[in-house]
Design brief:
The complex is a heterodimer of chains A (about 475) and B (about 1000).
Chain A: H1 2-15, H2 19-22, E1 31-32, H3 40-59, E2 75-77, H4 85-88, H5 94-116, H6 124-149, H7 171-188, H8 202-216, H9 219-230, H10 252-255, H11 264-267, E3 272-276, H12 301-305, E4 312-315, E5 321-322, E6 341-343, H13 345-348, E7 370-372, H14 376-386, E8 389-391, E9 402-408, E10 412-414, E11 440-442, E12 447-448, E13 459-463, H15 464-474
Chain B: H1 2-20, E1 23-31, E2 42-45, E3 51-53, E4 59-64, E5 69-73, E6 80-83, E7 89-94, E8 104-106, E9 111-113, E10 121-123, E11 148-150, E12 162-164, E13 177-180, E14 183-184, E15 197-203, H2 206-209, E16 220-225, E17 231-246, H3 255-265, H4 267-270, H5 310-313, E18 317-330, E19 333-345, E20 352-367, E21 370-382, H6 390-395, H7 421-425, E22 428-445, E23 451-470, H8 473-476, E24 479-502, E25 505-528, E26 545-568, E27 572-583, E28 592-603, E29 615-629, E30 639-648, E31 651-658, E32 669-682, E33 687-706, E34 715-738, E35 742-759, E36 787-790, E37 793-796, E38 812-814, E39 829-833, E40 838-848, E41 851-861, E42 868-870, E43 874-875, H9 879-883, H10 888-891, E44 905-906, E45 918-920, E46 923-934, H11 937-943, E47 947-961, E48 967-975, E49 981-986, E50 994-1004
Parallel strand pairs in B: 1-7, 13-16, 43-44
Antiparallel strand pairs in B: 1-4, 2-3, 2-5, 5-6, 8-9, 10-15, 11-12, 13-14, 15-16, 17-18, 17-50, 18-19, 19-20, 20-21, 21-22, 22-23, 23-24, 24-25, 25-26, 26-27, 27-28, 28-29, 29-32, 30-31, 32-33, 33-34, 34-35, 35-40, 36-39, 37-38, 40-41, 41-46, 42-45, 46-47, 47-50, 48-49
Classes of the chains: A alpha+beta (about 475), B mainly beta (about 1000).
Amino acid sequence: MKKYITLFLIAFMAFGCNEDSFLKETPLDFMSGNNSYSTKADYDASITELYYLTRKEFFGDYNRSMDFIYGTDLMMASDPLKANLSSDYNPTSGIAKFHWETLYLLVAQSNVAISRLPESNLTDAQKVEYEAKARFFRGFAYRTLAYLYGGVPLQLEEVKSPKTDYVRDTKENVLAQAIKDVEFASEHLSDITDVRDGEISLPVAYTLLSELYLATGENQKAIDAATKVINNPALSLMKDRFGSRKAENGDVYWDLFRINNQNRIEGGNKEGIWVIQEEADVPGGAANTSDYFWYTTSFWMERFCAPQTGLFKLVMPDGTNLSPFSWPIGDYTGGRGIGTLYATNHFYRTIWDGDFKNDIRNSIYNYPRKFKFNNPDFVKKYGSLFGDSIDLENPNLPAGVKIISGYDGGITPSNSLPNRFLCGYQTKCTTPYNHPAAQYLDKKTYLLSGTAGKTYTDQYMFRLPEAYLLRAELI
Amino acid sequence: MRTKFLFLLMLCMCAVTAFGQGHKITGTVVSATDSESFIGVSVVVKGTTNGVITDLNGEFTITAPANSTLVFSYVGYKTKEVKVNGQTKLNVSLDEDSQMLDAIVVVGYGTAKKSDLTGAVVSANIKDFEKSPNTNLMQSLQGTVPGLNIGQITNAGGTPSISIRGKNTISGNTSVLIVLDGIIFTGDMSSINPADIASVDILKDASATAVYGAQAANGVMLITSKKGANGKAKINFSSSYTTQTPTNNMSPMNRTQLLQWDKDVLWHDAYTEESGYTKENPAFDLAKRMPDAYMTNEQGNIVDSDYNWWDNFTRTGSILENKLSISGGNDGLSYMMSVGNTTQKNFLLNDDFKRNTIRINLDAQPRSWWKAGVQAFGSFSNRDGQETWLPYLIKQTPLAQPYDEDGNLISFPMHTAVETPFHGSMVDDYDRSNSFFANIYSEFTLPVKGLTYRFNFGNNYRIGEHNFASKYTNNENGGAYKNHSTYYDYTFDNILSYTNTFGKHDLSATFVYGATRRKYMYTSATANVFPRMALGYNSLELADKQLTSSDAWKESTLYQMVRANYKYNNRYLVTATIRRDGYSGFAANHKFGTFPSIALGWIASEEEFFKIPWIDYLKVRGGYGMSGNQTNRYASLATVASEIGYIFGQSGALRQELSSMQNSDLKWERTEGINFGLDFTLFNSFLTGSLEIYQTTTHDLLYKVAIPSITGFTSIQSNVGQIQNKGVELNLTSHNITKKDFEWSTTFNISSNSNKVKSLTGIDSNGDGKEDDMTASSLFIGESLGAIYDYKVDGIYQIGDDIPEGYHPGNYRIVDVYADGKIDEKDRSVIGTTDPKYRMGLMNKFRYKNFNLSFFFNSVLGGKNGYLGQNTSSVIPNDNAIRENHLSEEADLFWSPRNTDGIYSRSWAAGAITPNRYEKRDFVRLQDVSFGYDLPKNVLSRIGLDGVNIYVNAKNLFTISGWHGWDPEADNTYQDVNGNNRVTGSGYAHRPVMKSFTAGINILF
């Protein structure tokens, strides 16, 4: 008997298993390329990817998002981002690599969506709709690549096997391809009144087209495209106070950059054409109150562009020195800035010449140059001597009082103003008295935590005044 | 019911009577060397399971047929067979087996006598380290087996790195395959109670590992747990207590030291130029250079604060271990039961580990043709509590205070992003892992002579629970999570074995058909921003922000293996195996792989013509084999990553990204190897040893080949290139003195491995006729995988040196390797390797009467440019350089005009290039010293005990090394300039290794 049992067991084990089905590999917690591009939900996710990559490129990386002002005539770069342009812009640097890879990823993910459309289960109308969306982003990516790198290789299909033999195309061809894609989008996208906050629409396509035609010298087409945007009845310049903080002291330009004020539906903003979405501490919102700067999804403009006031000190005649500021405070001193990108003289003074007092963008709300002391110890002891603030346009320090401000570049103390520790700055980089609750260490004093430094507002990619400016270039 | 019971009872009695028939024999067993009587020698009637073991006086009584043969066996002695021939009194002496030729070695899906081995298989000597405070079994293997490389551990309950011979993969799996009681074990070695383990056998060469095919390229370690033996129950209780301090005990600077450090950072201002920056500058006021308000008082002077952060977070470590086991057996059933309890508290506060283990091993023989049994254990590990992050602890300045005037913790005492260390440890952390293992086997003798069928059904189940709550995270708004994971695997092996002898021909064969399946599931619930934190992770729903996530995977393997062993005339040996492996993770076009091996052996000293008087035993072995390294599961598929990735207005939206390219041709790495070995006994058993020489070549390396990012991908997982490993291993034991009251033996081992990249992608893009290196991946043809590609540093520029433009006194001096008069990226070259050249171990054991002493040295050496580790630091005057503290020993090593011998750069301004410096990790360590005393038997027998051993042990007593930092040996991973992982020793920024003293007792009764 036992013989038969054993023989049966052996036979069972030797032949009882279907090898193919036992070894079939099915991923359990991720999708695979073969089953992810057929339904409307699949395509919504693919298009959302393109928004995600756009935000990552322009407003979602720690210092790479600053590359668009770093090295320009707007901003001085100082320690720890001390400019070393020859190494920063060399072909293997982080700057050259990040934007190249992110923009080509935007191209590639658009290509995947476009190439797989014919095989999908979408209706013909839906196929056109999603193709228009994907081609808008591809055009937008090639436009940016052309601006940053000139003539780049054109890849217009999904790449299914390793390909290495790329050669540069001409800048003209790259821009022409961008125009072709965006023109297609402009024929099939919905109008701005029919989309959700943050989505691309017809005026977004026309704004981009106007810019692209300007770049290729097709001036009349550029004028026409800009006009289409300007004449869109749903869009108009914001001229009166509006939004979440209209009751506070401020002006309409200030309102444009306050939390929740950028979107049409959410904030009643008629100027915003394409608004990049940020939301603190929710999945997909990018901004995060608890991450340090080495996590990069947030937009860190406050950190780079607002001054580091805590390192500014006043030295009394008896040698006592004290900072009048309890950095980091989420008020008009700029939150948790470190001021490593502070205004050049050109941006600080030259461009305001003649209209310094009246230009709304240079108002005390939008470009403060006078700082209220927020260190209670200082105010208690020296308030009678200094008043309650320091005006950088007219410091007027009592006799014998000197200033000292930290280190500049780590070598010599700097005592000329403005510098990275105290300078006028644009308040659109921060959210005075209005950081997310979780960002404060002490809500009463607006004391921010060490993880602050992010800008918590939605960001404009295209705003109506740009259409006016584009048209103004040509008329 | 009652009748059935009676019937059963009668059956049992019949069985007992059946065994009882025969001839009663008594006798004594002694050792041939010193005529001491032997306790615990197994005496078995040949061909049966009828057996006894000798008592305290070495005496035994057994009933056996008058014409039978008795087999006497004892570990470490040659097994002896004695024909009864009607005698009733048998006195037997056993000869020591210096080569352990009769020892049974586990070889995978079976066992073999050591004398029959043809491959490079080594049994580790774990017995000599039983007295060490090794909470992890792997620590007992450190340095003792040539070719087996075990790393140091720096945290409580940690498992050291384990590797066999050289590294043969770039990015594939590098783990040694661990097989526990016949079942592949993927769990954590820290879940195993070392006291439960009887033996550890290592399969090193491809001819031996080929039985495990596609998973065996990194070598195989076979661990076997203890079994019960027939005879009186043995009860063993042991207890030990250990104290621990770092091998190199260091602490950060105090106030006085830090202020001097600050002056040295600012040497250019703090000292006068005329004096060469060695005399104090009276105009310099350090207080004015203090970057933060809290550092100075209102008068502008530096505050008096001298807070000792270090002592709050460090302590004298300890380990308390208690272990109890009961083992025994009688006809038809043997058992081993154990419990173990370990409590370890390491040097850093909250670096704690507690483990409780239970084990039951049963072996039953219900019928003469049927055996069945189980090996089962449960292990419950507790790693509750979180230590604060050491680099932040070291950085805290004594000038800062932890609490404000109101007694509240200051979150950022240094006014930088460096959080207070108290936040890191004042958390509610529940971290448990529970492992369960059971292997059920059954073995049947089949009606063909020598043929048996066995199945193993092994089950591993693990549960991980990690719950955490801290009121300090999320900017002190609180955060908590519960992470839960489960893992289950089963292995079902069918093993058909055949063994028979035909005259001078010994033949055996093994056929295996088996399958495994592994499944993993993970759930995480995270909650952030709590209005009230009192309930912590037990009420996550109270938080404002709640996030959940989950993961899962599954993988399967399916395999067949055939092995044949043939021996002729006890001197010619052949072993051949072939294994076919299927793995779910292989790409569609390559689901199966086949791995063959063949090995030959010749016991030359058995030959009639072999007449060299000083050679007692000589065996020559040689083998060839192939084994594999699997791809990662899912590596060949095109992956679509998805998450909630954007938000429109207020509503989140799913995004999906095609994040990898499919590769249907992806296959396993193949490692082919040859091994040549010698086993010998010389000079009348004075010296025994073995020598191994090997070479392996690994093909089709799994590697992410870079492709232009224009494609949307930066790399594709592919098979490329070749790596070669060559090496020699030697193991020698000499029995220096063997007297009745005094014994001294020495064991020495040395191994050397060299590793070389033979080819990579095969592309020669610059057309120089040579294949291109992959510099961006730190891979160089003809160099080791551990090659270090960097600048060569030759000390530090001194004041008055001829310093090139862009450099300053105190900067590292970079060698112009390219010799073009410029210092730039061209001066980077392969300056050495992280691989050691030689590894050595030296054990000396002494016994004088009842006293035992052993000491073990371990050494790893790098040769000319080997075993280099990055050990670099540089400081220029900026805010953080003034604020941040350092270990005082490290601080003293920074260069300044007053410390021109300093090795780390401390300069007024950074040089155009700040290179990394490297130093040798070579060390010699007295790793283990044990001193024990066995209480005399005549004393013990009066109090009813069989044995008592009391001992003291010192581990890592001293280390000789030129390394700067905590410890040269502990591996720490860093990323080189190209982002590739490299290892270095434990520098000042890493973690300490413990030196420990233990006292313990073992009681046997």
